[in-house]
Structures are given as C-alpha cells and as structure tokens.
TrEMBL record:
PANTHER family: TRANSKETOLASE N-TERMINAL SECTION-RELATED. SUPFAM superfamilies: Thiamin diphosphate-binding fold (THDP-binding). GO terms for molecular function: metal ion binding; transferase activity. Its cofactor is thiamine diphosphate. This is Transketolase subunit A. It comes from Sedimentibacter saalensis.
Amino acid sequence: MKYDDLKLTAQNLRKNILTMIHEAKSGHPGGSLSAVEIVTYLYFKEMNIKDPHDEGRDRFVLSKGHGAPVLYSALMEKGFINKELMGTLRQVNSKLQGHPDMKKLPGVEASTGSLGQGLSIANGMALAFKLDKKENRVFALLGDGEIQEGMIWEAAMLANHYHLDNLTAILDHNGLQIDGKNNDVMTVEPIDEKFEAFGWHVIKADGHDFESLEKAFEERKKVTGKPALIIAETIKGKGCSFMEDKASWHGKAPNYEEFCMAMEEIGGGLNG
C-alpha cells in the first residue's frame, strides 16, 4: 500500500475511533488516536495477516489494552469484523469490550488491559515460534506510561536472553498518561539507553509519518539475534486539535459538538 493509501486508511481509523467512543459515551480517545499511524502501518503494510485464522499470520499484541478502539478500527478496515459492531463499543456482552477480549473477537490475539502484561504475552508467542522453527513474527504495542510497570522490564530481560529476533515492540511515545506528563508522574527516560542495556536494538521514528515508520521497520529486518524496540514519537489525541497533547483526553468521550468538530478536522465531516 502506498503512502497516500495509508493516509486515507489512517483517516478512516480515526473516524471509526471517534464514532465508537462518542456513541459509547465512554472510552480512551487520546491513546487510540496517537497510535493510528503505527497500527495502520502494521496491518496494511508490515504484517503478514490476510486471514485472522491463518496459522502462518504474524501476531499483534495491544499491550496498552485501553487503546482497543484503534485495534477494532483496523480489524474493521481489514474486513475481519463487521462495521455494524461500531455502535456496540463497551456495551454489556458486546464483542467490542473496553479492553480487547480474544474470546469474543476474531483478530484479537491477546486479552489485554492490565498494563505491563502484553510484552510477556508477546514473548511467549515469539519463543513458541522459535521453538517450533516457524517464521511468524510478533509485534507488541506499548504505552510509554505502561513501561513504568516492573513486568515490562522482566519481559525485556527475557526477550534478550532467548534472542527473540522475531519480536518487535513499538512504543507509542506520546509523553502523557492518565495523571499527566510521564516525566511528572514517574519518568521513564532515558528509554533508549534502558532497553539497550537490556540487550535490545533500539530504533527511533516519527510515529505519525509513514516514511519514517517504513525506515524503522526496514532497519529492524536487518537486525538478527536480538529483540528490537521502535520508539515512535507521537501526539496524544492526534488529529483533533482540542485533544492533542492533553492528558484530560486520556479517557473521556467527546460530546456531540466536540465529535462534529473532530470529524470535520479529520476530514470530510460526518459523512465524508
């Protein structure tokens, strides 16, 4: 898929995200919107995943499970799930739970939401593929507030110990978490030096630029014998001016006026 097509797909993902969260009157727009280009690139360019049931597919683990709307949007645009589900986000017994539930929805590889656990799940998948001598790759999307969790660092240590070069973690580095700036709550810097000390290959990218993401993933392919982390610099709430870089939009749904404004800014208004 070309860059222009990826941009159009990303635009559709943002509209889906806002529609789901607005109709649910609940959800996490900020961190879903910041990860749009990352998830778009993975699902429509990088990953081998034409069928959510194909054993040969690459695996994606949304470790920052509260960003579920961005994953659901990608699965809709891939045609894995029906867009008619869009109005059911966070409803009782819905397939679109507030955090991903692998038992309810095809294409969800892991039930996540308890922060810090997704990288360990991805480790298990990657190690299993190694032991079975399979070519499947595993990608895990982390939040930068999430890496304050100790379990992340245990997983980082294990991934290097077992030389999991079929594992790539992507950090949605928007600098904010529910309580404010990461650096005010509990600084996670220097992230690159910390992961390098754990034996990872670290790559930096602009998380909203497809060319930058492509260069990062191409560099990753050249690295063998170790796991890799792509630190993708992003903006929380990207695409909606009144949400951008504001921690207050971590877990708040837009009202009707805000929804209309956001859809207009993303492009084309409600029916565009």
